[in-house]
Amino acid sequence: MNTIQLKKYHGLGNDYLVLDPNKNKIHLQDRKIEMICRRNFGVGADGLLYGPLTDEDKIEVKIYNSDGSEAEISGNGVRIFAKYLLDEGYVNEKKFTLTTRSGDVEIEFMDEEGTTMKVSMGKADFSTKKIPLISELGEIVNQRMKFKDAYYNTTCLSLGNPHCIIMAEEVTSQKAKELGPYVEGASCFLNRINMQLLEVQDRDNIKIEIYERGSGYTLASGTSACAAAAAAYRMGLINSKVMVHMQGGSLCVEIMEDMEIFMTGTVGTVGTFTLAEDFFA
Ligand SMILES: N[C@@H](CCC[C@H](N)C(=O)O)C(=O)O
Protein backbone atom coordinates (compact mmCIF):
# COMPACT_ATOMS: atom_id res chain seq x y z
CA MET A 1 0.00 0.00 0.00
CA ASN A 2 1.44 3.39 -1.05
CA THR A 3 0.07 6.09 1.24
CA ILE A 4 1.09 9.73 0.91
CA GLN A 5 1.79 11.71 4.08
CA LEU A 6 2.05 15.48 4.15
CA LYS A 7 2.93 17.84 6.97
CA LYS A 8 1.17 21.18 7.09
CA TYR A 9 2.57 24.44 8.48
CA HIS A 10 1.75 28.11 8.05
CA GLY A 11 3.65 31.38 8.03
CA LEU A 12 1.15 33.97 9.32
CA GLY A 13 -1.74 32.12 7.69
CA ASN A 14 0.09 31.48 4.38
CA ASP A 15 -0.22 27.68 4.52
CA TYR A 16 2.04 25.11 2.89
CA LEU A 17 2.14 21.33 2.73
CA VAL A 18 5.51 19.59 2.87
CA LEU A 19 5.84 16.48 0.70
CA ASP A 20 9.04 14.63 1.51
CA PRO A 21 10.31 12.42 -1.36
CA ASN A 22 12.38 10.37 1.14
CA LYS A 23 9.16 9.30 2.88
CA ASN A 24 6.68 9.15 -0.01
CA LYS A 25 6.62 7.57 -3.46
CA ILE A 26 4.83 9.91 -5.85
CA HIS A 27 5.21 11.00 -9.45
CA LEU A 28 4.61 14.71 -8.84
CA GLN A 29 2.61 16.51 -11.53
CA ASP A 30 1.03 20.00 -11.50
CA ARG A 31 -2.44 18.37 -11.66
CA LYS A 32 -1.75 16.38 -8.48
CA ILE A 33 -0.40 19.46 -6.66
CA GLU A 34 -3.50 21.41 -7.65
CA MET A 35 -5.74 18.58 -6.37
CA ILE A 36 -3.91 18.32 -3.01
CA CYS A 37 -3.89 22.12 -2.45
CA ARG A 38 -7.51 22.62 -3.45
CA ARG A 39 -9.65 23.93 -0.56
CA ASN A 40 -12.74 21.88 0.31
CA PHE A 41 -11.85 19.01 -2.08
CA GLY A 42 -8.23 18.41 -1.09
CA VAL A 43 -6.13 19.02 2.03
CA GLY A 44 -6.08 22.70 1.10
CA ALA A 45 -3.05 24.99 1.05
CA ASP A 46 -1.57 28.05 -0.66
CA GLY A 47 1.27 25.88 -1.90
CA LEU A 48 3.36 22.75 -1.62
CA LEU A 49 7.03 22.31 -0.72
CA TYR A 50 8.78 19.26 -2.20
CA GLY A 51 12.00 18.17 -0.55
CA PRO A 52 14.56 17.82 0.82
CA LEU A 53 16.35 17.05 -2.42
CA THR A 54 20.03 16.56 -1.66
CA ASP A 55 22.87 17.03 -4.08
CA GLU A 56 26.31 16.60 -2.51
CA ASP A 57 26.21 18.95 0.49
CA LYS A 58 23.25 21.06 -0.72
CA ILE A 59 19.72 20.86 0.69
CA GLU A 60 17.20 21.89 -1.95
CA VAL A 61 13.46 22.53 -1.93
CA LYS A 62 11.08 22.91 -4.83
CA ILE A 63 8.27 25.41 -4.24
CA TYR A 64 4.87 25.07 -5.90
CA ASN A 65 1.85 27.38 -5.94
CA SER A 66 -1.65 25.96 -5.39
CA ASP A 67 -2.32 25.95 -9.16
CA GLY A 68 0.64 23.57 -9.60
CA SER A 69 3.02 26.16 -11.09
CA GLU A 70 6.58 26.26 -9.75
CA ALA A 71 7.84 29.41 -8.00
CA GLU A 72 11.46 30.47 -7.79
CA ILE A 73 11.23 31.31 -4.08
CA SER A 74 8.79 31.86 -1.22
CA GLY A 75 9.62 33.73 1.97
CA ASN A 76 7.10 31.91 4.14
CA GLY A 77 7.89 28.70 2.24
CA VAL A 78 11.59 28.74 3.14
CA ARG A 79 10.87 29.45 6.82
CA ILE A 80 8.32 26.63 6.87
CA PHE A 81 10.69 24.23 5.14
CA ALA A 82 13.47 25.12 7.60
CA LYS A 83 11.11 24.24 10.47
CA TYR A 84 10.29 20.92 8.78
CA LEU A 85 14.00 20.12 8.37
CA LEU A 86 14.56 20.83 12.08
CA ASP A 87 11.47 18.85 13.19
CA GLU A 88 12.51 15.81 11.16
CA GLY A 89 16.17 15.94 12.22
CA TYR A 90 17.58 16.81 8.77
CA VAL A 91 19.37 19.84 10.28
CA ASN A 92 20.50 20.58 13.80
CA GLU A 93 22.69 23.67 13.33
CA LYS A 94 21.53 27.15 14.33
CA LYS A 95 22.37 28.39 10.82
CA PHE A 96 22.25 26.59 7.49
CA THR A 97 21.88 27.21 3.74
CA LEU A 98 18.81 26.18 1.77
CA THR A 99 18.83 26.05 -2.03
CA THR A 100 15.79 27.24 -3.99
CA ARG A 101 15.27 27.70 -7.74
CA SER A 102 16.28 31.36 -7.36
CA GLY A 103 19.46 30.55 -5.41
CA ASP A 104 20.66 30.02 -1.85
CA VAL A 105 19.08 31.55 1.25
CA GLU A 106 20.71 31.59 4.69
CA ILE A 107 18.44 30.56 7.57
CA GLU A 108 19.12 31.36 11.21
CA PHE A 109 16.92 29.92 13.97
CA MET A 110 16.28 32.62 16.57
CA ASP A 111 14.83 30.38 19.32
CA GLU A 112 15.23 26.82 20.69
CA GLU A 113 11.96 25.52 19.16
CA GLY A 114 12.89 26.86 15.71
CA THR A 115 9.63 28.77 15.34
CA THR A 116 11.25 32.16 14.66
CA MET A 117 13.78 32.53 11.87
CA LYS A 118 15.83 35.23 10.23
CA VAL A 119 16.40 34.66 6.52
CA SER A 120 18.66 36.36 3.97
CA MET A 121 16.37 36.75 0.97
CA GLY A 122 18.87 38.02 -1.64
CA LYS A 123 18.87 41.41 -3.35
CA ALA A 124 15.89 43.30 -4.73
CA ASP A 125 16.48 43.91 -8.45
CA PHE A 126 14.41 46.65 -10.11
CA SER A 127 15.59 45.96 -13.68
CA THR A 128 12.60 45.37 -15.99
CA LYS A 129 14.60 42.67 -17.84
CA LYS A 130 15.04 40.71 -14.63
CA ILE A 131 11.33 40.73 -13.67
CA PRO A 132 10.70 40.15 -16.72
CA LEU A 133 8.49 43.04 -17.82
CA ILE A 134 8.01 44.46 -21.32
CA SER A 135 8.78 48.18 -21.10
CA GLU A 136 10.87 50.88 -22.79
CA LEU A 137 12.09 51.80 -19.31
CA GLY A 138 14.98 50.10 -17.51
CA GLU A 139 13.07 50.31 -14.22
CA ILE A 140 9.49 50.94 -13.12
CA VAL A 141 9.71 52.87 -9.85
CA ASN A 142 6.61 54.84 -8.84
CA GLN A 143 5.40 55.02 -12.47
CA ARG A 144 1.79 55.20 -13.56
CA MET A 145 0.50 51.90 -14.93
CA LYS A 146 -3.02 51.02 -16.03
CA PHE A 147 -4.71 47.89 -14.67
CA LYS A 148 -8.35 47.04 -15.32
CA ASP A 149 -9.81 50.53 -15.81
CA ALA A 150 -7.61 52.81 -13.70
CA TYR A 151 -4.05 54.14 -13.34
CA TYR A 152 -1.94 53.36 -10.26
CA ASN A 153 1.50 54.46 -9.05
CA THR A 154 3.42 51.24 -9.44
CA THR A 155 6.87 49.81 -8.67
CA CYS A 156 8.08 46.48 -10.06
CA LEU A 157 10.98 44.36 -8.88
CA SER A 158 12.38 40.88 -8.70
CA LEU A 159 13.34 39.12 -5.52
CA GLY A 160 14.02 35.94 -7.45
CA ASN A 161 10.28 35.95 -8.11
CA PRO A 162 8.40 38.90 -9.70
CA HIS A 163 6.49 41.59 -7.77
CA CYS A 164 4.27 44.53 -8.67
CA ILE A 165 3.72 46.98 -5.80
CA ILE A 166 0.81 49.38 -6.11
CA MET A 167 0.37 52.50 -3.98
CA ALA A 168 -3.36 52.23 -3.41
CA GLU A 169 -5.85 54.46 -1.68
CA GLU A 170 -7.82 51.40 -0.66
CA VAL A 171 -5.64 48.68 0.87
CA THR A 172 -8.28 46.04 1.61
CA SER A 173 -8.69 42.34 0.93
CA GLN A 174 -11.66 43.16 -1.28
CA LYS A 175 -9.59 45.49 -3.47
CA ALA A 176 -6.75 42.93 -3.69
CA LYS A 177 -9.17 40.19 -4.76
CA GLU A 178 -10.80 42.50 -7.32
CA LEU A 179 -7.62 43.97 -8.89
CA GLY A 180 -5.25 41.01 -8.36
CA PRO A 181 -6.29 38.84 -11.33
CA TYR A 182 -5.86 41.79 -13.75
CA VAL A 183 -2.38 42.59 -12.45
CA GLU A 184 -1.23 38.95 -12.18
CA GLY A 185 -2.22 38.28 -15.78
CA ALA A 186 -1.33 41.65 -17.40
CA SER A 187 0.32 40.96 -20.76
CA CYS A 188 3.42 43.09 -19.96
CA PHE A 189 4.44 40.61 -17.23
CA LEU A 190 5.98 37.73 -19.14
CA ASN A 191 5.91 35.24 -16.23
CA ARG A 192 2.78 36.64 -14.53
CA ILE A 193 3.39 38.51 -11.25
CA ASN A 194 2.66 38.74 -7.51
CA MET A 195 0.73 41.90 -6.58
CA GLN A 196 0.86 43.94 -3.37
CA LEU A 197 -1.34 46.89 -2.47
CA LEU A 198 0.80 49.15 -0.29
CA GLU A 199 -0.06 51.65 2.42
CA VAL A 200 2.82 53.41 4.19
CA GLN A 201 1.62 53.98 7.77
CA ASP A 202 4.79 55.69 9.03
CA ARG A 203 8.56 55.34 8.48
CA ASP A 204 8.65 52.10 10.51
CA ASN A 205 5.37 50.43 9.50
CA ILE A 206 3.73 49.48 6.23
CA LYS A 207 0.56 47.54 5.49
CA ILE A 208 0.03 45.32 2.45
CA GLU A 209 -2.72 43.25 0.88
CA ILE A 210 -1.52 40.46 -1.39
CA TYR A 211 -2.64 38.64 -4.50
CA GLU A 212 -0.15 35.89 -5.28
CA ARG A 213 0.77 34.53 -8.68
CA GLY A 214 -0.55 30.98 -8.89
CA SER A 215 -2.30 31.03 -5.50
CA GLY A 216 -4.60 34.07 -5.51
CA TYR A 217 -5.45 36.07 -2.39
CA THR A 218 -3.29 35.07 0.61
CA LEU A 219 -3.19 36.25 4.23
CA ALA A 220 0.58 36.79 4.14
CA SER A 221 3.61 36.39 1.89
CA GLY A 222 7.28 36.65 2.81
CA THR A 223 8.61 37.75 -0.56
CA SER A 224 5.68 40.19 -0.91
CA ALA A 225 6.56 41.76 2.45
CA CYS A 226 10.23 42.08 1.40
CA ALA A 227 9.32 43.42 -2.05
CA ALA A 228 6.88 46.03 -0.69
CA ALA A 229 9.47 47.16 1.88
CA ALA A 230 12.16 47.39 -0.82
CA ALA A 231 9.83 49.47 -3.03
CA ALA A 232 8.88 51.84 -0.19
CA TYR A 233 12.56 52.17 0.81
CA ARG A 234 13.61 52.90 -2.79
CA MET A 235 10.96 55.65 -2.91
CA GLY A 236 12.42 57.15 0.30
CA LEU A 237 9.22 56.56 2.29
CA ILE A 238 10.51 54.30 5.09
CA ASN A 239 13.56 53.53 7.24
CA SER A 240 15.77 50.54 6.44
CA LYS A 241 14.10 48.38 9.14
CA VAL A 242 10.32 48.11 8.98
CA MET A 243 7.40 46.04 10.23
CA VAL A 244 5.22 44.77 7.40
CA HIS A 245 1.64 44.20 8.52
CA MET A 246 -0.56 41.72 6.64
CA GLN A 247 -3.95 40.13 7.32
CA GLY A 248 -2.29 37.04 8.89
CA GLY A 249 0.35 38.86 10.95
CA SER A 250 3.56 40.86 10.70
CA LEU A 251 7.12 40.30 9.50
CA CYS A 252 10.21 42.37 10.25
CA VAL A 253 12.13 43.34 7.09
CA GLU A 254 15.61 44.87 7.04
CA ILE A 255 17.15 46.39 3.93
CA MET A 256 20.92 46.75 3.56
CA GLU A 257 22.73 49.47 1.55
CA ASP A 258 23.17 47.09 -1.40
CA MET A 259 19.45 46.13 -1.32
CA GLU A 260 20.14 42.74 0.32
CA ILE A 261 17.00 41.92 2.32
CA PHE A 262 16.59 40.11 5.64
CA MET A 263 13.22 38.85 6.85
CA THR A 264 12.39 37.69 10.40
CA GLY A 265 9.17 35.86 11.23
CA THR A 266 7.47 32.85 12.76
CA VAL A 267 6.11 29.50 11.61
CA GLY A 268 3.13 27.59 13.06
CA THR A 269 2.62 23.82 12.86
CA VAL A 270 -0.80 22.49 11.80
CA GLY A 271 -0.39 18.71 11.63
CA THR A 272 0.12 15.60 9.53
CA PHE A 273 -2.28 14.46 6.81
CA THR A 274 -2.57 11.11 5.04
CA LEU A 275 -4.16 11.07 1.59
CA ALA A 276 -6.83 8.46 0.89
CA GLU A 277 -5.51 5.65 -1.33
CA ASP A 278 -7.93 6.56 -4.11
CA PHE A 279 -7.45 10.36 -3.74
CA PHE A 280 -6.06 10.82 -7.28
CA ALA A 281 -8.46 8.30 -8.86
N1 LIG B 1 3.83 32.80 -0.37
C1 LIG B 1 5.04 33.17 -0.88
C2 LIG B 1 5.25 33.42 -2.33
C3 LIG B 1 5.01 32.14 -3.14
C4 LIG B 1 5.44 32.22 -4.57
C5 LIG B 1 4.64 33.16 -5.40
N2 LIG B 1 3.24 32.87 -5.45
C6 LIG B 1 5.21 33.17 -6.82
O1 LIG B 1 4.68 32.49 -7.72
O2 LIG B 1 6.22 33.86 -7.04
C7 LIG B 1 5.95 33.93 0.05
O3 LIG B 1 5.77 33.78 1.26
O4 LIG B 1 6.89 34.58 -0.41
Walk me through this protein's architecture:
The chain has 2 domains: 5-121 and 267-274, Diaminopimelate Epimerase, Chain A, domain 1; 123-263, Diaminopimelate Epimerase, Chain A, domain 1 (Roll). The relative contact order is 0.18. The mean pLDDT is 97. A hairpin with a 6-residue loop joins β7 and β8 (116-123). The two termini are 15 Å apart. It has helices at residues 30-37, 75-87, 173-184, 222-234, and strands at residues 5-11, 14-19, 47-55, 58-65, 70-71, 95-100, 103-109, 116-123, 143-147, 150-158, 162-167, 194-202, 205-212, 216-218, 241-246, 249-255, 260-266, 268-274. The chain is an alpha+beta fold. The strands form 2 sheets. Strands 6, 7, 8, 9, 10, 11, 12, 13, 14, 15, 16 and 17 form a 12-stranded mixed β-sheet that branches. Strands 5-4-3-2-1-18 form a 6-stranded mixed β-sheet, sandwiched between helices. The site of the ligand N[C@@H](CCC[C@H](N)C(=O)O)C(=O)O has 19 residues, from α2 and α4.
